[in-house]
Description:
Layout: E1 2-7, H1 12-22, E2 27-33, H2 45-48, E3 58-59, H3 62-66, E4 71-74, H4 78-91, E5 94-97, H5 104-113, E6 118-121, H6 127-142, E7 149-156, H7 166-179, H8 183-186, E8 187-188, E9 203-209, E10 215-223, E11 226-234, H9 238-251, E12 257-259, H10 261-264
Parallel strand pairs: 1-2, 1-4, 2-3, 4-5, 5-6, 6-12, 7-9, 8-9
Antiparallel strand pairs: 7-10, 10-11
Helix pairs in contact: 1-9, 4-5, 6-7
Amino acid sequence: MMKLLVMGAGGRMGRSLVRAIDQTDGVVLSGAIEQSKSPYLTQDSGLLAGISTNGIVISDDLNDVIAQTDGVLDFTTPSSTVEIARLCAQRGIVHIIGTTGCSAEDERKIAEYALNAVIMKSGNMSLGVNLLGVLVQQAAKALNPGDFDIEIVEMHHKHKVDAPSGTALLLGEQAALGRSVDLEMASVRVRDGYTGAREDGSIGFATLRGGSVVGEHSVILAGQGERIELKHIASDRSIFASGAVKAAIWAKDKPAGLYSMLDVLGLN
């Protein structure tokens, strides 16, 4: 049995991860961590997740719990994720990262820690989104940037704190890869006021927030007289949780390194 620890176990994603572990053969919950001021501390993580009592109470003592685990499932914040990556590297523990909003410096540190541990990091853990990314890359490669413009539109619930979403950036990276360009140089994140005409080859992002939307992403390739739209709609965040658990199982016996969900799905 692979022992898995869930970070942010009291949140929406954390509870989904606890449920996914409970429903998956070959894994067991070894710990549930929350912030020191969380109202969920000392609560049974199973009951909080809407399943039966599992005896794993939510704690804020990561150092104590991590010593008893084989892998960490982490959908938290960039600063927390970097620190967790450091701890996992020290112990050679699998680290599954679904955290979004990481800076270039955060990414550099995570890559450095991956020299000593298996780190699987993805902006989205679902099969559908990662397959969509492959299709976006192929479409961007096939369609001339002078003939087709690429726009990425995403919508999430009103509580999401980063923008564009990690999934939108994942799709943008695939589009940039298809066109052999640097996304940072090609992307347009904000349009306001008198912007002038759209530059050929740019990759635009539009961010929408509201209600309880789990996640909707559209990649639009707009040409003269025709438009192609590639879209993914997530209606249940359990798809991300089950994907993360599957990634942990896949990563268990892999050599140290930085992997993506495309590696897990055999699409890389």
